[in-house]
Amino acid sequence: MITPRTAASVHLRQQGLYSPPCRIRQLTSTRHKINYQTGYRVLPVANHQDDTRTAYDGVVELYASLFANRLETQPFSRAMIGTFAELVRATGNPRAADVGCGPGHLTAMLHELGLDAFGLDLAPGMVDHARQAHPALRFQEARMESLPIEDGALGGVLAHYSMIHTPPGELPELLSEQVRVLAPDGLLLVSFFGTDGQEPVRFNHKVTPAYSWPADSLAELLADAGLDPFARLLHDPASERGFLDAHLLARRS
Ligand SMILES: C[S@@+](CC[C@H](N)C(=O)[O-])C[C@H]1O[C@@H](n2cnc3c(N)ncnc32)[C@H](O)[C@@H]1O
Question: Which residue segment(s) compose the domain that 98 sits in?
């Protein structure tokens, strides 16, 4: 029987949104998706990561020209990244990954802030660009879903607008992977498009579809993944879309 609740779930699913109730999250590997019409668990057919990689590979130079110097005009982001770097240094383990590093400018910033930073990105064109722009630093092609990093190795992980393309139903598993590579007391800084309400909102990002998140909902996922989200900054955007710029800082508990 279709209840208002299942009807709402079907509606979300049709929009490409998937925010299952906790009961389903506990019972189901996030590699599987619930088909709300049949109730069966299925593996996704389309791989959104391939679409994301292709999309970013097609805009490397344009993206770098627009964003590689952008933090010069973004004092709040600079402040949060500076705080993150200071807290990572204080753990005594300066090794830090910039996941979804794009053109590598924030990897360079972390390096300047005293971290042993390296960058990872799923788009090979971004990795090539980052290597050429910052030849002294290390960059590698890798997916955030499967990091080529040993357990508990890092003092910090920076995910600056790089989880925005991950469908909401896959975010818990993605966060678990970031937690896996953090040392106890290691820090995760997630920056993203913030929105009101309770649910993530899918929107047409200029490169490839993305999701904005209510900060409370994302903080809850961080806590579910074994992190303590202890600081946040939300501020008016520079973008015309009207989302907030949002930053959550969490520590591995
Ligand atoms: C909006 S850009 C952000 C780049 C950079 N962090 C910045 O703030 O300018 C998103 C980046 O994340 C990368 N990315 C998206 N999904 C990813 C995934 N699952 N694994 C690794 N990189 C990913 C994209 O290739 C792209 O370079």
Answer: 24-252
Domain of residue 166, CATH code = 3.40.50.150
The H or E element containing residue 184 is strand 182-194
Is the CB–ligand 1 distance for residue 110 below 6 Å? no
Q: Which is more confidently placed, 104 or 8?
A: 104
Q: Is residue 4 part of a domain?
A: no
| pTM (two decimals) | 0.83
Q: Is the pLDDT of residue 34 over 90?
A: no
* 6 domain-assigned: no
Higher pLDDT, 4 or 187: 187
Are 126 and 101 in contact by the 8 Å Cβ rule? The answer is yes
Helices (H), the chain: 4-14, 22-27, 48-57, 60-67, 75-90, 105-112, 124-133, 171-181, 215-224
Which token pair is 226? 């074994």
Which atom of ligand 1 is found nearest the CA of 159?
A: 6
- Quick one: pLDDT at residue 5? 31
Mean pLDDT across the stretch 17-44? 39
Ligand 1 nearest-atom number relative to CA 191: 8
